[in-house]
Structure formats: structure tokens, C-alpha cells
Amino acid sequence: MARPMGSVRLKKTSPATLAVGVALCIFIIYFLIGPSTPNFSPSRKAAAAAHHLSPPTSPFRKPTGDKQKQKPPPVAHYNLNNVTTTPNPLENRENILILTPMARFYPAYWDNILRLEYPHELITLGFILPKTKEGNEATRELQKRITKTQKHGPEKDRFKSIIILREDIDPPLVSQDEKERHKLENQKVRRAAMAKARNSLLYSTLGPSTSWILWLDADVVETPPTIIQDLASHDQAVMVPNCFQRYWNEEKQMMDERPYDFNNWQDSPTALDMAKKMNPDDILLEGYSEMATFRTLMAYMSREDGRLHEEMPLDGVGGAALLVKADVHRDGAMFPPFAFYNLIETEGFAKMSKRLGWQPVGLPNYKVYHYNE
């Protein structure tokens, strides 16, 4: 028999299908009318930056429903005009940032830091270490010393804060032995990596209240306890002491010292002429017989009868120990990981500082000492 036109037979819907449909409808309704952003309640306080160098960064969200209105994160105000960099940093209680790229941990380095006579509550320490087996070991040793100092040490030894960064790039050299590090063929790639590490450390730690930055290599194990006050007293924007190394002199049968850092120099006509003939991506290096520049090296300008605070203007600087006014870095002077006027890393930094109007200065008779491997 023919079915009447317009009549439709409906299939019986199963309970499972009906349940899925209801759930889907509820989800769509919630999606359309529910809150579009999460509720930032007090339990989310950890999302806000608590470090003294950074203002809170967690966004403010109005609470939903009948909950009491939460206070927004505070607005941090910094007046850089009030940040001083004077020849009397101790008297004016200026904040110091000591930055150290570290591939190995030297106990003598930490002992030397603890002996600094500048108030530790005004010093922030910053470290960057590679993600290598050696870097992991150095990090463990560093953290042990930090814990001992910051948690169990005398109040006078505790620093304002300590920041540890781990590099996000692979180190160009597997070995950190001194001979391997100083091979000529390794210099460009090694120093480019060092420049990137320095820049990462600098721009991750430079705070709005920082007055001075003391760059101090991890293998510099001896400095005068008053090095910060001594270098700052010259009121120079970029200031370097002379880096030497103590060793056993077989000929004299006694302890002796020798120059170590040859990156503190005054330029020469020969070096300038060599640079003119180089490709833009080539770099000039100091201290190699294959590349005789005939520059005036501060390492050889030290005199037994010289004045401790005698100054000399420089065109290139090393990073073993280097005091910099924070304004120099804030102006944009960084460590080029590329050839900058045929210079790289710390020497490129000196060139960049000069281009910005800041003259580097050295103290040939004021010495710090490098670890002797």
C-alpha cells in the first residue's frame, strides 16, 4: 500500500547518541558565553616576576562572578636620572653588577669574590655557564658555594642577589684546556661564542638601579679587595687593570709573574694598515706571531717603580677584569660576535665604546692575576 505523501518516519534515537548530543550542546553554550580569559587569582602570583631586577609581568584580569576584586600587579617606577656613577661608589652606595662567564669553577675565584671589601648587599652576581659535562660540574660546584655563602655564611658575606644562566647554544670547542682555547684557528668561532654569552648575560641581568658592571673572568683568582673602589675612583667609563699570571720560574728558582692578557692595547699604523686590506668579515687578533700588529700592549707597560693609578688611553680591551659604567652598555655598547671594524668580542666592545664617545682607559701598574694551568 502506498505511503501517504508528506509523511516521514523517524528512526528511534539511541540513549548514547542522545547523551553525546546533549554534551556537545552544553560545550557550545559554555564556549559562547563563558569567560574568554583565565581568572588570575592570588593563587597565580607565581606567574608574576618576583625578582628585584624586573617589574611584575603577569597581566591583570578582572575576576568573574561574585568574587572580591583583586588588586592589580603594582606599577614599578624607575628614574634613571637618580642612578649615579661616581668616583665614590661606596660613599654613594651605588649598586654593582659582577658578571662572569664560567666554563670551569675555580675555588680561588669564589674565595677572591668573598674578600671584596665593597658591601656585598650592594653587589649582584651574574653567571652564564655552557650546557656541557664540564659546565654541569661547574654549575654544581658554584651552587654549593652559593648555598654555603647565602644560607649559612655570615651576613656580611651574603650578596644582594645571584643569577645563574645556562647557555642555549652549543660551545664551539669541546675542550677548555688553555692550549686549545688559544689556538689561532679557534679564535674567531671561540670569541664569537664568548661575545654571545657575554651579551646574553649582560642583557638578562642589567637592572635599572645598576651603576657599574665589573666583568670578571672565572679564572681570575686574585684581585685587590678594593678593586671596585679603586677602578671607579678614576671616574672613567671603561677601565681595565693589567692581568698577569703567577708561575714558578725554573731559571730563578722562585715564584715569579708574567703578562697574561694581551687584548689591552693602543693601536699602531701597522695594525690599521692591515685592517684596511682585510675583508669586512676578517678579524685582527693580538698576541700571535702570524699576525704581527706592532701595537703598544699594556701588558708590557707595567713598571716596578710606576705609579699604581697611572692611566693610559686604550683602543682595545680584554675582559679578564673590566669595570664599565652602566650607561655605556645602556647606550648600546655590546660585545660584537661578528667582525666590527675587523675586531671582535671585548676588543670590538672597546671600538664600539669609542664610537659612542666613551674612551677606554687602562692602568698598567694595577694588577690582577689569572689562574696558572
UniProtKB/TrEMBL annotation:
GO CC annotations on file: mannan polymerase complex
First-listed, main subcellular location of the protein, grouped into a coarse class: Golgi
InterPro entries found in the cross-reference section: Mannan_Polymerase_Subunit (IPR052086), Nucleotide-diphossugar_trans (IPR029044)
Keywords: Golgi apparatus, Membrane, Signal-anchor, Transferase, Transmembrane, Transmembrane helix
Region (Disordered): 44-76
Intracellular or extracellular location(s): Golgi apparatus membrane
Gene Ontology terms: biological process: cell wall mannoprotein biosynthetic process; protein N-linked glycosylation
Gene3D superfamilies referenced in this protein's UniProt entry, alphabetically: Spore Coat Polysaccharide Biosynthesis Protein SpsA, Chain A
Molecular functions (GO terms): alpha-1,6-mannosyltransferase activity
One Pfam family recorded for the sequence: Anp1
Keyword Transmembrane helix among record annotations: yes
Transmembrane segments: 12-33
Topology in the lipid bilayer: Single-pass type II membrane protein
PANTHER family in the cross-refs: MANNAN POLYMERASE COMPLEXES SUBUNIT MNN9 (PTHR43083:SF6), MANNAN POLYMERASE II (PTHR43083)
Assigned protein family: Belongs to the ANP1/MMN9/VAN1 family.
Name of the protein described by the UniProt record: Glycosyltransferase family 62 protein
